[in-house]
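ingest -> validate -> predict -> emit
validate: passed (alphabet ok, no gaps, 383 aa)
predict: started
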Amino acid sequence: MKQKTLTDLALIAFFVIGSTLLIWAPFVLRLKSFWGLSYPANGLFTLWQNFDGLNYIAVAKTWYCPTLLEQNFSSLALSPIYFASHFPFYPLFIWLFSSIFGFLNSMLFVTLLFTILATWMFYLLVRDFKLTSSPLWLSLVFLALPARWVVARSVGAPEPIFIFLILATFYLIRKNWCLLASLATAAAVLARSPGAILWLAVIFSTFGPWFTGLIKRPTQSFPWKGLSQILAPIAIFGLFWFYKTQYGDFFAYFHSGDNIHLFWPPWSIFNKNQFWVGTFWLEHVIFIYLLVAAGAVLLFKKKLYDMAIFVSLYLLASFFVAHLDITRYLIPTYAFVIIALENWLVSREFKIVLLILLIPIYLFSQNFILGNTAPIADFSPFR
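emit:
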């Protein structure tokens, strides 16, 4: 690996750690107030309390055992089957590092670790396949935008590990390392249920050109390497079978309660009476749809068809999500939107804009973390 690449990767790790410590600083230093925001006197507890990190710790400590969930995590006030919606790949790494850091700090460490790995993977993707003239700068943009991603990579959340696996899948496919790509896809479906969208995008991208090409060239060779993608359905089948052993219900995920947030008809988010909406101040949703849709179109124009298909499918699925936090649901698409908008994002004008926006991004992150907390008083079951 070239010296410049190693230097860039080291700089990325520095910026990930540095920016995360800046987000954590008011809590670690137990500030009483900052920029008009009032902080509780419990330090890191606020970071630990952020949704949905504690749920993943509960999974890491019980592996979906209903009895243990009821006995040890009643403070979460959730039915044991609710945790079937929290897939096991993130809890697995929390568990692996818990012997070193304890479960609470392991949760934050795993988030930080996979943020570094995800940004490294983004850098390698855009550099190795010449998707930008400024891979380091674009990687720093990836770290900063959108602000909701900054929050997700600073607390207990599965997004960093999920995004790492998504980017790894696209990178490995481009390297023609099909078996490794299939393993990454299988891991992604075990990290979050929308990993199924990634799998569909890979299937469409792999077999779609062959299928449509049969009209012109009936004798063209079948993409046999794509068959390794059978690993993802096998992985989800294995998980659901494990749910059957724990819950006695193979389809426990679909019976886990009010946490899937998919509704008919589409765009039910524009109904203030929806439980997870509760407001008519929703114009920002239109801008989010517009941004991601524009990204998909530009990816098609750049002939990055696999990425364009993934973003399009993800956006299509989001039309059925009725949840005010739609920005979080679309976090897995933003890396590709950044690639789509690369020409502008590397410009001098945008660098000035981003420099100005860093302060409101930081304030948004602080305000969100302060408000997005579970009402937990006793942390002893989570340690």
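The mean pLDDT is 93.
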